[in-house]
Amino acid sequence: MSDSLWNIFIGSSLINNFVLAYFLGICPFLGVSAKMETATKMGGAVTFVMLISSMCAYGIHAFLVAINAPFLQLISFIVVIASTVQLVEMFVKKMSPTLFKALGIFLPLITTNCAILGLALFQTSKGYNFLESFVYALGAAAGFTLALILIAGLREQLEFAEVPKTVKGAALTLLIAGILSMAFMGFSGLSF
Amino acid sequence: MSAEDKNINQGSLQMANAKPSTDEFIKGLWRDNPVFVQVLGMCPVLAVSNTALNALAMGLATTFVLLMSNILVSLLRNFIPKQVRIASYILIIATFVTITDYAIQAISVELHKSLGAFISLIVVNCLILSRAEAFASKNTLGKSIADALGMGLGFVFALFCLGAVREILGSGTFFDIALFPSGFQEWVVMILPAGGFFTLAIWLLIFNVFKERKQKDE
What we know:
The complex is a heterodimer.
Chain A: H1 5-15, H2 26-31, H3 36-66, H4 73-95, H5 97-103, H6 106-109, H7 114-125, H8 130-158, H9 170-185
Chain B: H1 3-16, H2 21-29, H3 42-47, H4 52-75, H5 85-107, H6 109-115, H7 126-136, H8 141-171, E1 173-174, E2 177-178, H9 188-191, H10 193-217
Antiparallel strand pairs in B: 1-2
Helix pairs in contact in B: 1-7, 2-8, 4-5, 4-7, 4-8, 5-6, 5-7, 8-10
């Protein structure tokens, strides 16, 4: 691997931002980005699940290669992600009931967040080692949280703007996302 | 998938229960179009719609998985315990996605490369899971097949609308056939991620305008 860890981090968080360049995790991006507070919490929960499932995915991939059964990859990844989410849910419920209440339905829905499965698949296809996978997951999570917070901030401001009724809702959010995505293209010069 | 989407699904389910199978088929195509009306399964819609061919292939792959998983879920609906139903649905879906993944690789390596990880990501397409949970688990086999075909073709239709616009404007071609004389300046932004967001936003706008007109008429 010629990539330095710093390059991997910048690459996955800014240049190839999971939401704005790879279109992963659009569902929560559209659904939970109306308020700053929920967006931040969602970002935190996704970060946690991403880090754990990325490490598990590394182990599983190594194991499946060892027993020569790569066709089981997808099924085992999704099972690991689903159980990680379940584990996180139980852990949060036990440790901090207030946080559990605040996250509500968003916790179990993380299972169907494509950003997490996408992360596991990308790190495998890029052949990252354990440390590189971890940094990649960290970058992806940071990028996801950043995009979510940025759009939530913009949408909160737009509450006060007079928008035609037809444009309101998903269409408007997608337009903002498009503009943000163009802005993020400016980061493509950052890799060095 | 937001709570709002769930409500829409359940609403359409209750309406649909009293009607024949042909209606299940048509509702997915237009009235409850998964992309333009329900706004489900956005990730593949935006990611692989940079050419019409990619969009079509992705749409058909998703339809196949949706159809097979709806059939299996509908057949097993009386055997799967309620507590583990979501996990079972996901396993069923993941199995068919793996089959599709290998099938596409066998048919065309080039296509497999251009679709990349997004074939595997069909697993987490909220559209498929929501149809399994909201429809196939509560309805007979025939109705579930009609529903899957309607929703699937609606998804193909939406993906194709996006892919065609993006390819024509972004590369000046349609299914790799050049459309314009050589002086045509391509809109590079349409091929880039930003173009995907803009095109989808504009299609949603068009659908919203139609919906509002209809409401006014009534």
